[in-house]
Amino acid sequence: MSSSNDAPAHVFAPTGPAALSGDWTLDPAASTVEFTGRHFLFFPVTGSVPVRSGRAGLDAAGSLTHLDATVGVAGFDTGNPQRDRKVRGPGFLDAGRFPVLRYAGERVAQGAPPVLTGVLTVKEREVPVDFTVDEVTADGEQVVVRATAEVDRHVCGVGAMRAVVGPRLALRVRAVFVRTP
Q: What pairs with residue 23 in β-bridges?
């Protein structure tokens, strides 16, 4: 949502903002959140977290009216079961106490490329995170958004094993939205 001091924030789409106005529901089965981090600060570790739910809305001008998405911490997966159990545990994400990560989008700032500004909630800690919107495709009943961001896990309150695991995670999101009936 834009304030009176901000230029209107529009989502880029080939069909135009009016065609995308309304409410959209995230399709968890078609959406992905992938990440890359560093082990011993050198070796890349890639993985994913399953998308659980989400909703978004656009007004007739193409401005974001709301965006809320959650991913399930219990599904954190790097392909290494021992590492995954540790990361889901109390020292890292603490899936038992905090089963979801939530992202609340606030606005989309026009630019080349557009930037989605919002807040990521990790273990009840709210952290500003901006996603670069790399691509938006739409066909009227489905919108696919590809976006990337970088997150500092220490700022998010996930500070275990600092000497072994790097602080930064590169996120890649493919969000598939379908028009809400």
A: 57
The structure's pTM equals 0.86
Q: How many Cα atoms within 13 Å fall on the side-chain side of residue 179?
A: 10
Q: Which amino acid, 67?
A: L
Both structure tokens of 28: 């968890």
What radius of gyration, in Å, describes the C-alpha atoms of the chain?
Answer: 17
**Cβ atoms within 10 Å of 101's Cβ, excluding its own:** 21
Chain centre distance of CA 43: 24
Exposure string for 49-67, b = 16+ CB within 10 A, e = fewer: bbbbbbebbbbeebbbeeb
The band of 123, judged by pLDDT with boundaries at 50, 70 and 90, is very high
What is the secondary structure of 7-55 as a DSSP string? PPP----TT-HHHH-EEEEE-TTT-EEEEEEEETTTEEEEEEE-EEEEE
**Tally of CB atoms within 10 A around 10:** 20
H or E stretch covering 145: strand 142-152
Q: How far is CA 114 from CA 57, 69, 130, in A?
A: 17, 19, 10
Positive/negative CA dihedral, 106, 56, 70, 130: negative
pLDDT of residue 51: 98
Peptide bond into 113 cis (omega under 30): yes
Pairing of strands 100-109, 22-26: unpaired
